[in-house]
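Need a sequence for this fold. Nothing fancy.
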């Protein structure tokens, strides 16, 4: 038996479902008082016009982040030679779309050019190179960024400092030095410390709190803590733990944002994993909703087609709210419901089809317009607001349904 995706089945049958949403992710976030819901992107993806159309849909995305093109190796590949072409492409797209730009990142131990990693540095020469880099890049993007991730991932899991080139050569002072250089170059931009595994209470979150206090103790501006939130399905921290950890940061007078949210799974994906992923996305986004000082959420690209996960974590993937065919997964509805939105769907005709390698069965064609406020449903499951039938269905998948939002069984 070969199962095709729902969109493939509908398209193969010549039937285009028309789905209209009462609110997209960004619209819903802004309605709650957040500044944005956004997505990372990258230059290679921008030649895919269908991808760009969705990325530019400000109902869903009010903010974008360049995934790579503002990093050190991209912007200063040779010492004091700065290249901004790729970063500018994404900044221009944000401006054209009226989206905020989160700028990422200035100081990290990864994606450094050879001249930095293999240089022969003293404390003084490395500080000079650090300041020169930050001053140039932040000045170039002055007025264009909502925020800069000034320092990325300075911590080990136990909350001690990562023994990077920066820490080994300059010591912890490289953090306030970096923030001061960024503040001098663009006094208006928000300046963030950004890291992973600081979304929940523990030694690393305590380390991030220490960094905020350290920068403040130098009398230097730090405006926010970025919670990367690269999570694994079924192992994410609880909503209340994420919210209380956010509150610990905001108690220091800084804002927080979820900056790189994705929730990966061991492949292949299953209906159960996708349902759990939806719950997990809702927990993280809900924690931001619960926290007054959480200004927004950025997912680390919106589609599995371009996710960094499969290339980085062997055997894992399906981490984004849209699949690789740009079809919304249950995670989309989970996020939307956490943002207080509901999916209003209008299905002019829905064909329920099961395709096997030897036969095709077709059942149930109907017209339905309804609003679902229930839990996301997915292939092989039925449910949602008003649903009174069984919650699962088996081959030949002949459930009838009372609403059209993922409640049909395919
Ligand atoms: O071959 C490289 C390729 O490996 C590189 O991949 C990028 C690596 O960084 C990813 O973003 C980071 C993900 O998690 C956090 O740790 C960081 O803050 C993020 O910057 C990015 O998505 C990948 O595309 O890309 C360049 C290729 O030359």
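Here you go.
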């Amino acid at each position: 038996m070969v199962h095709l995706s729902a969109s493939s089945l509908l398209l193969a049958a010549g039937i285009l479902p028309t789905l209209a949403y009462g609110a997209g992710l960004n619209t819903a976030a802004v309605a709650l008082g957040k500044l944005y819901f956004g997505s990372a992107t990258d230059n290679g993806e921008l030649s895919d016009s269908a991808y760009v159309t969705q990325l530019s849909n400000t109902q869903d995305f009010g903010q974008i982040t360049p995934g790579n093109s503002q990093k050190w190796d991209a912007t200063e590949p040779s010492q004091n030679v700065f290249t901004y072409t790729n970063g500018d492409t994404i900044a221009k797209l944000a401006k054209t779309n009226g989206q905020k730009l989160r700028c990422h990142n200035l100081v990290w131990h990864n994606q450094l050019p050879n001249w930095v990693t293999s240089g022969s540095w003293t404390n003084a020469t490395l500080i000079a190179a650090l300041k020169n880099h930050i001053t140039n890049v932040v000045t170039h993007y002055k007025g264009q960024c909502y925020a800069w991730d000034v320092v990325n991932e300075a911590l080990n899991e136990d909350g001690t400092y990562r023994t990077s080139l920066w820490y080994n050569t300059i010591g912890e002072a490289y953090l306030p030095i970096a923030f001061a250089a960024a503040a001098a170059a663009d006094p208006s931009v928000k300046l963030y410390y950004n890291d992973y595994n600081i979304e929940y209470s523990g030694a690393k979150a305590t380390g991030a709190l220490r960094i905020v206090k350290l920068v403040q103790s130098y009398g230097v501006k730090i405006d926010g803590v970025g919670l990367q939130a690269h999570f694994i399905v079924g192992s994410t921290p609880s909503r209340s733990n994420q919210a209380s950890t956010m509150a610990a940061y905001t108690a220091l007078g800084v804002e927080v944002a979820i900056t790189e949210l994705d929730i990966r799974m061991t492949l292949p994906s299953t209906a159960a994993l996708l349902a759990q992923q939806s719950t997990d996305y809702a927990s993280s986004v809900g924690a931001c909703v619960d926290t007054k000082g959480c200004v927004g959420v950025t997912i680390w690209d919106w589609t599995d087609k371009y996710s960094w996960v499969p290339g980085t974590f062997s055997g894992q993937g399906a981490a984004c709210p849209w699949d690789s065919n740009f079809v919304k997964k249950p995670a989309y509805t989970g996020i939307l419901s956490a943002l207080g939105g509901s999916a209003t769907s209008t299905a002019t005709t829905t064909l329920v089809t099961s395709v096997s390698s030897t036969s095709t069965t077709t059942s149930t064609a109907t017209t339905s317009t309804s609003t679902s406020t229930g839990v996301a449903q997915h292939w092989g499951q039925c449910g949602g607001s008003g649903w009174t039938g069984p919650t699962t269905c088996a081959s030949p998948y002949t459930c009838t349904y009372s609403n059209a939002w993922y409640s049909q069984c395919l």
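For context: Confidence is low (pLDDT under 50) at residues 1-21, 345-388, 393-410.
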